[in-house]
Records
---
Amino acid sequence: MNPSYRPVHNIARFPFSRLLAGLRVLAHNVATVAATLVATLVATGALNSAAAQGTRDLTFDIVPATAAAGVARQIRLSVPWPLGCAPTGAVLVPGDVARHRMLSIRFDGEFDSLTRCGDIIFNYQVTVNVTPQAEGDLGVIAVTSNGTYLGQTTIHTRAAGGNRSRYDLTGMWYDPSTYGSGLTFVHGFARNDTLFGTWYVYDAQGVPRWYTIQYLQWNAGGTEAVGQLFWTNAGAVQCLAPFTGCPVPATSVVPMALVSIVMLGPNSARITALKPDGALTANVIRSIF
């Protein structure tokens, strides 16, 4: 047995409290030194990121703002950026634009987080050219070469006086004077402009009823449309109590009336069901969550 070995028979007497107190002091000192170092690096610009300083206030200017398919467009981008590490240019990123309806613009340059950029900020401007080949809306997103998000916008492509909708109707709409009724629209605004709507109303007995709005055609200018109002029926249905309604296949789809949509703005519209013996009108606004 090693004569220098001395077992600790009473471990409870070991000064753990002093050890913990010393560790706390050490951790506090390390944190203080680290905070001071980071503050010094930021103050001297050594920790200023070119991407971080360049992500503010990116603006887009689409010229012309709206045009027909096949017309060349300019996307003019402007963003404040540190003079010492400005982008070297901006390019369109190849991709399946027709499928995703989205363009990506990449700002190239050296955007290392440890790059010293300097304190002088200037307005960096660049123009990217694109020619949309189909009517509809095309999203545009701008990022740096290291993946930092800068901003996004939309290119509107439609012929002057064309028969595409001017607004995207997707969402929920209601008339404040008849709260509890309303409409829901699903709109292929950025693609083929197909619009499908559901109109929730009540019958003479106060029982909920709904109609569908289909086959809409927009007029020149895209602010008025006419389509068909349908009543979908499933006949007699046996549902589990206490439910009086349940999902089952439809047995008939009955045309009920013509329907007219007049857009009064992006968030307000007048919906009218037209029959030879009368009309049903609702002045609706968009539900914005």
---
Amino acid sequence: MQRFENAREAALALRPDDPIYCFRPQVLKADAKQFMGMFPGKTAYAVKTNGEQIVLNALVEAGVGAFDVASPGEFAAVRAVSPDAEMLYMHPVKAQSDIRLALEKYAILVISLDHEDEITKLTRVVRALDIDPGAITVFVRIQTKGSAAYELSKKFGAGPANAVELAERLNRTGYKVGLCFHVGSQIEDPDTYERALASATGCATASASTLPGSMSAAAFPPNTVMIRTAASRKCRRSARSCRGCRATSRSTSSTSCRWWLSPAG
């Protein structure tokens, strides 16, 4: 790998006809360490934002130990750089063969879904592999409404009432159950996070009477809600004035996806 002082030096030296990939691993490591130092919950990097091996290696070296994965290629990419990293299979729609690969080969025990058909596929694989459902944490992805530049809840996520039904079905089958949501990409209004948390809290409360303690997930605190977020490029609120941006307001990367954990109460 060639090293240059800056992008200008690289361009003048290489005179490339095609785009080239420039990477500053120390900057990425510093950002990752800063985020994890400011945020008390578990942080996981979404591999789809940039799955290059040099990027994943830098994150592992910075101390990131969990990765949000969405495909077999991403399973393999993470395992190639870290034999011990935790993987969270958070794409809500999956091929049954991919579910089996995730459980059987990569021992992925955290999964998300937003439809009863996904529960059927997951349970079919779990029974075929003779896995205890209690060893698997399943997050029901709920819909959220906000002002994202790229709104994902139009495509993914269960409505509140349906989310409660899915959580109850998962609980009856023996899985650990949680709630998760994705507020979308390029959030300009930090209050979007507050509204999403309120929606998740409502679902957790509605499930509490029939699912005692079921919202605990793995090593997470009781009544845990998982939030998938991307740093906002346009938000200018200070860390002191906004709880939603507190951990990301100083981030230099607008494509950094993180998993936030916050008590649902």
